[in-house]
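Retro notes (design track)

What went well: tokenization of the new backbones is finally stable.
What didn't: we kept losing track of which sequence belonged to which structure.
Fix going forward: every design gets posted as structure first, then sequence, in one message. First example under the new rule, 512 residues:
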């Protein structure tokens, strides 16, 4: 078995066996408890990270406020140049950072490096955006008046990320917020904190080299402790959270109580409709990728496939055959497409969901068991699973973060859309068809109720150029591209009177 950590990997990035988990312009000397980082590949200990204390947090936020005052005064195009240089530094370290992602999150090298590439792409997007923070010019009803709107930085914003995309999702928020003029406090998942430390080590080089204000801050904390500090802190006007629905609801409540803003990217229970008019092989590739990428641990993972009854048996047979060829194991090994789940709790959730599905009337078609791999006995491996299900089964309404695919059939496109929309979540959706009318029905007002709607492509694998996010229990926020940059700023309507009188709106008269 190859060594989990290459001899010089940590030194290339600037990591140690024991790392500080607090960065506020300098790496804070460990003073609190330690987090042990274990790899899901074999369960072995990789490193230790010190956890932030409350004193660390308060000092970090105070410094973030001071750095924000400097950063917001730098013209946006110059802010963009700093983010571009960060992207260039990430290009240099793409392979090394990708290896850290693989070790800590269990992703294949292609997915690990792809995550860093996504950060690079976002830095390019942010650079262009830095010259396009546009407001509107508005016609005034009053003579000698001009109206327009402008967008103003919010302040220190917080980004709380999940383990499944331990680097890229942070950059969707952080790089865009930074060119907007904000500074960013990052609280990563304790299940993927080493990647966050590694990314910050690389970014620190650029900030120091340019003698720039410190725009990115890092705080590793245990459990929900750090999240509670952030969400209840009125000094932080915006909190962006990626994670589960229950935690997202708590965060939303905490932030709303103090009239703050939140961006919530919560659960996805994503469905793919496969029509009898689909290109079957294309649909098969799209469903298999969507269901199995990142071992089913994506918020955009395909969890339900809704197949037209005329081709149901044919498609199910092809699906079983495809699953039988998928290699599960050490994600670093050639030919392995499905690596481990993140931890033992994820395995238990997988087993529990399968038990419930069978009790509720589901039929196990493929998989359904955990796997023990020689030499990796401490890892968390399970078989990709297919279950024939009915749309009204309670477990089908839930998101299980594992490679479980529920298969069900439909008669008409209207029925397919109704089944598709019958779950509480509303993140990503897909239809495979060559029929224009079916495609348009899926995209119509009564069609997909998700934030992302795809035609002849997978529910997973969203591009950065579009705004990312969903509806219903998914939370309703948007990140990354399009005009999602507006979430990290405040809108200000400006009225200027350049005349010598004071006419009032709505013809109001006020004479004295």
């Amino acid at each position: 078995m190859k060594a989990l950590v290459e001899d010089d990997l940590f030194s290339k990035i600037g990591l140690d066996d024991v790392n500080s988990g607090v960065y506020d312009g300098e790496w804070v000397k460990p003073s609190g408890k330690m987090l042990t980082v274990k790899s899901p590949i074999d369960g072995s200990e990789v490193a230790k990270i010190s956890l932030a204390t409350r004193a660390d947090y308060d000092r970090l936020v105070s410094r973030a406020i001071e750095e924000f005052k400097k950063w917001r005064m730098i013209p946006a195009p110059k802010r963009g140049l700093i983010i571009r240089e960060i992207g260039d530094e990430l290009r240099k370290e793409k392979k090394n950072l990708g290896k850290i992602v693989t070790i800590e999150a269990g992703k294949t090298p292609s997915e690990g490096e792809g995550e860093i590439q996504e950060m690079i792409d976002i830095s390019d997007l942010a650079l262009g955006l830095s010259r396009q923070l546009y407001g509107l010019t508005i016609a005034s009803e009053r003579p000698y008046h001009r109206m327009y709107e402008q967008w103003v930085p919010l302040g220190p914003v917080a980004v709380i990320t999940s383990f499944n995309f331990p680097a890229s999702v942070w950059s969707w928020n952080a790089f865009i917020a930074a060119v907007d003029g904000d500074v960013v406090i990052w609280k990563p998942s304790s299940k993927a904190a080493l990647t966050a430390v590694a990314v910050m080590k690389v970014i620190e080089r650029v900030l120091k080299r340019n003698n720039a204000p410190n725009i990115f801050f890092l705080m590793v904390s245990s459990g929900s402790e750090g999240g509670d500090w952030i969400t209840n802190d009125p000094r932080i006007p915006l909190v962006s959270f990626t994670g589960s629905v229950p935690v997202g609801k708590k965060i939303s409540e905490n932030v709303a109580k103090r009239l703050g803003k939140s961006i919530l990217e919560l659960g996805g229970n994503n469905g793919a409709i496969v029509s009898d008019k689909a290109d079957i092989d294309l649909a098969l590739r799209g469903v298999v990728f969507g269901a199995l990428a990142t071992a089913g641990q994506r918020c955009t993972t395909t969890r339900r496939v809704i197949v037209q009854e005329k081709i149901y048996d044919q498609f199910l047979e092809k699906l079983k055959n495809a699953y039988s060829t998928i290699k599960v194991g050490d994600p670093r090994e050639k030919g392995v497409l499905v690596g481990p789940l993140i931890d033992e709790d994820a395995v238990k959730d997988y087993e529990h969901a399968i038990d419930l599905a069978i009790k509720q009337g589901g039929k196990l078609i493929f998989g359904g068991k955990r796997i023990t791999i020689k030499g990796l006995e401490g890892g968390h491996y399970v078989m990709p699973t297919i279950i024939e299900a009915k749309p009204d089964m309670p477990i089908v309404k839930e998101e299980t973060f594992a490679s479980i695919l529920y298969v069900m059939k439909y008669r008409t496109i209207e029925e397919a859309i109704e089944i598709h929309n019958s779950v509480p979540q509303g993140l990503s959706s897909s239809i495979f068809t060559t029929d224009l009318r079916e495609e348009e029905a899926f995209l119509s007002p009564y069609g997909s109720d998700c934030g992302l709607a795809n035609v002849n492509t997978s529910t997973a694998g969203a591009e950065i150029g579009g705004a990312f996010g969903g509806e219903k229990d998914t939370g309703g926020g948007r990140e990354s591209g399009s005009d999602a940059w507006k979430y990290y700023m405040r809108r200000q309507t400006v009225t200027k009177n350049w005349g010598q009188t004071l006419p009032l709106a709505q013809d109001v008269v006020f004479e004295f």
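Added context from the reviewer: The CA atoms of residues 105 and 342 lie 6 Å apart.
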